[in-house]
């Protein structure tokens, strides 16, 4: 019986990483706080009629997605546990936090 349980666990395989979508609309992120698992990605979609530039200077995940316009998106792999503070370089009041577990 014990070997059967082990075989089932092995057959299930590793958990798949998730993709979380964050919209940018009205000069704000669609969420202020987002909780993800290490290995998940966050897709930042620009739903505004002007450009955004999403970035983070956080120690665990530093990135700059550059400027991109309406209808476009860019993604970031969250590969380390901790807190990632995210901002928009174009709109300084746009801020959010990603907690990577």
UniProtKB/TrEMBL annotation:
Q: Please state the span of the N-terminal signal peptide per the UniProt entry.
A: 1-17
Gene Ontology molecular-function annotations: copper ion binding; electron transfer activity
**Main localization of the protein described in the UniProt heading:** periplasm
- Which cellular components does GO assign to this protein? periplasmic space
Question: Which sequence ranges form a coiled-coil region, renumbered to this chain?
Answer: none
Ranges for the Blue (type 1) copper domain? 27-100
| Cited InterPro entries | BlueCu_1 (IPR000923), Cupredoxin (IPR008972), ET_Amicyanin (IPR052721)
Pfam families tied to this protein: Copper-bind
Q: Which UniProt keywords apply?
A: Copper, Metal-binding, Periplasm, Signal
Where in or outside the cell?
Answer: Periplasm
Which protein is depicted? Answer: Methylamine utilization protein
Q: What is the lineage of its organism?
A: Bacteria, Pseudomonadati, Pseudomonadota, Betaproteobacteria, Burkholderiales
């Amino acid at each position: 019986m014990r070997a059967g349980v082990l075989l089932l666990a092995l057959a299930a395989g590793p958990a798949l990483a998730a993709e979380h979508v964050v919209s940018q609309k009205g000069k704000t992120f669609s969420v202020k706080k987002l909780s993800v698992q290490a290995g998940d990605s966050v897709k930042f979609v620009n739903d505004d009629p002007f450009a955004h530039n999403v970035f983070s200077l956080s120690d665990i995940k530093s990135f700059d997605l550059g400027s991109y316009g309406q209808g476009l998106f860019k993604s970031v792999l969250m590969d380390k546990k901790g807190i990632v503070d995210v901002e928009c370089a174009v709109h300084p009041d746009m801020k959010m936090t990603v907690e990577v577990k």
